Amino acid sequence: MQKFLRFNCEKDFVLQGVRKSRVLLCCSLLSVSLNVAGQTTSVTKVLEYVPAPGQFVNASLPKYEAGDTDESIRAKAESTMKAGSSFIGLGAYGGYVVVGFDKPIVNVPGEYDFKTAGNAYVNNAECGIIMVSQDKNGNGLPDDEWYELAGSEYNNPKTVHNYKITYYRPQYDIEIRKGETPDENYINNPASFRTETENNNIADVMWKDNLGNTGYVLRNTFHKQQSYYPMWIESDELTFSGSLLPSNAVQSGNIWQFPAYDWGYADNWSANESDEKIGMKIDWAVDKYGNPVRLTHIDFVKVYTALNQCVGAVGETSTEFKSVIDLHPDAQVSEDKSVVLDLSEAVLDESTKVSDFIFDTETKFFDFNDLFRFSHSATDWGGGSFSWDGFVCSKQQPDLNEPSDLYNPDGSVNTDVVSSWEYLPQNTYAAVTGAGVNGDNTPYIFGYWDSYSDQSIISFADGMSHKVNGVYVTNAAINYISMKYGDSYGKKFGGENGTDPDFLKLTAVGKNGDTETGSVDFYLADYRSDYSCDDYIVTDWSWMDLSSLGEVSSIEFSLSSSDNGDYGMNTPTYFCLDGLSVNPQASVPSAISESEKAVSWSVYPNPALNYIRIKGDEYKKADIYTLNGVLVRSVSASEQIYVGDLATGLYYIRITDDTYTSTLKFIKQ
C-alpha cells in the first residue's frame, strides 16, 4: 500500500492516508434523507455559500458550469436547500454556508430549539460547526456578531479555537486559466507524481495554517474535474477561520471509520437520530472568547466544515448539509422586559472626562436610572495624596499608539516607557475600547478593585432583589498595555517565548442579603491554551452572562491573575462595565427579612420645603444622600430634620435603628 503524509506537523493532526477501494469512497456519497413526520426544512434562503476546495467542488453539490459566478452558485445552493431533497457540500476545512428563515427560531430555555440534517450515518461523521446570529441591526443581512454553538468537543484541549487556513489555487488550474495546456496525467494519474518527499502534484490544492503546517487537498482518480478549487472564485487564495475539531478518523484494519462526537454538530449523526444527538440548543451559544451569551432567538445559521483531515482514497473530510428544522415553529419571540443601564445622564469633569467625585471622600455610592447603585470610596492621605476604589464613570479615549522609544536597541521592551505610557492622562481611566457599548463618545463604568477593601459592588437603589441578566465587560487601557508589553510591575503575558499560561480573571459573586447565590468567571485575558493562536486579551465589549446568579441584592466584583508578587497582583486591577441588564422583580426589599416587615418608617411631607419628619417606629440615625451617593446630612433621632438649605431635587434618606435599615426617597422643593 502506498502511503503519503497528510500533514507536515505533529500532535493530533498527523494522519496517514491509506488508499482504499472505490466501494468505500462511494459510501461517502450516500444520501440520508430526513424522514420525520411533520418536520420539513425551515431554510428559505441561502445568503452565502463559499465551499473550501474538495473532490466534489465544481463536479456536483452544486455543479459548476462555465460562466457561473458567486451569485449563480449561491442561487443553485439556495434552490437545493429550499427543496430539502438533497444536500450541498462544503468542501474541506472552513467551507461554509449561511442560511436564513422566514421567521426567527425561538430559544425555548431548557429545550432543543432546532436540528440539522446532513449526510451522516454510522461511523461516517463529517462534522460541521454551527454558528448562530441575530439580525440586530434589522437589515436582513448576516452582518451582526456570530456565536458558536459549543458542542461536546468545545472544551476538549485538542480543539483549536482560533484556527486559520489559506488554500492556494493549484498551478494546473492557473495554467489552464492562462490558456495553456498542461499534461492531463496530473489529473488522470495524480498519485504517480507524488513521492515521500514531495507528496503533491501541480493539480493538488496546497494549504498553510496558522499552526505552521502545510498540506494538500489531494486529487484522486475518481473525480477528474479540472480543479478541486472553486472555479467561480476569482481570487487565487481562500482563507477560512474558526474552531478546528480534533481528528475523528480511526483505522480498523483496511477500513477507516469516522465516529460521531457526542452532540452539537452538523453532519454528525444520522438525521433520524433522537434530539439528544442531533438537536441544538440556542443556549449553547458562546462568543469568540468562549463566554455564554443570552439570545432570545436567532435569524441566521452558519455551518462550516470543522475537520482538517484527508484519509486515503476517501479524501478530505467535507461536511454535507441539507436542512435546518425549527422545533418550535409556532413559538413567538417574547417581549424583552429587562432594564438596561443608561449612562447618558452621567456628569463628568470637562477636562478629565471622569466623574468629578472620584476623590470625594464623602461619596459612598452613585446611582443611575433610579435602580443601579455603584459603590465608591475615596481616601485623603494628606499632602494632596488621594486614593479611590469601586466605580466611576468615564469617557476617556486612550492612546494605544506605541511610543517611539518603546523598544530598546536589542529589540526588548523598555518597561519604564511602558509604565509612563500606561499612565498618560488619557489612559488613566480609559477603557481599551475608548467608548461605551453604544459607540463613539458614550460613557461607561470604570472599575478599580482593591484587594484590601474589596468594595467593587453593584446593588440596587430601591433596596430590592432583582434577576440579573448580564453585563458587558472589557479591559482598561492600563491592563491592556501592561499585559501586552509588560511594565515595571507586571509581566508580559505569555512571557518572552509566549508559552507562559497567564490569565486575568474577573469574578462576579451574587448575593441576596448575606446569602451567596453563585459566582461567574470571565477571562479578560487568557494564555493557558496549548495553541498560541488561542491566546487573547479582550479588546472589545463582551457579554458576561450573570443569569446563573438568580435574584440578587448585590454583585461583588474581584480580579485574580497568574502574575502575583509579595504584595498581591502585579497585573493592574482595573476593569470596565457597560450595558448592565436586569429583570426587575416585585419582591421584598433585600435589606428587610421576614421579621423586619413590622418595622415601618415613612417620610413626610413629601415633597418637602424646609423640614421633613420620620413617621413610624423609633430610630437611631438618619443619613441623607444625593442621587450620586454624596452624604449631605447625618442626624440622630429628632422630631424633624432641616432640609431647607439643600438644593432642589430627589434625595435618599437611610434610616437605621439598632437592628434594621430602610432607604426611602423624598423630593426637596
**Which geometry do the CA atoms define?**
elongated
The number of E-state strands comes to: 43
SS-based class: mainly beta
Number of domains: 3
> Overall pLDDT, averaged?
88
Helix proportion of residues, in percent?
under 10%
Task: Extract low-pLDDT stretches.
Answer: 1-38, 587-598
Count of helix runs:
7
Q: What is the percentage of strand-forming residues? A: 25-35%
Oligomerization category of the chains in this entry = single chain
> N-to-C terminal Cα separation, in Å?
94 Å
Instruction: Give the biggest beta sheet.
Output: 14 strands, antiparallel
Structural Rg: 31 Å
Describe this structure in words.
With 669 residues, the chain is mainly β. It folds into three domains: 43-326, no CATH class; 339-583, Protein of unknown function DUF4465 (Jelly Rolls), CATH 2.60.120.1350; 602-668, Immunoglobulin-like (Sandwich), CATH 2.60.40.10. 8% of the residues lie in helices and 35% in strands. It is built from seven helices and 43 strands. Strands 21, 22, 23, 24, 25, 26, 27, 28, 29, 30, 31, 32, 33 and 36 form a 14-stranded antiparallel beta sheet that branches. A six-stranded antiparallel beta sheet has the order 3-5-17-7-8-16. Strands 4-20-6-15 form a four-stranded antiparallel beta sheet. Strand 23 (372-382) and strand 24 (385-394) form a beta hairpin. The longest helix has 14 residues, at 70-83. Residues 1-38 and 587-598 have low confidence and may be disordered.
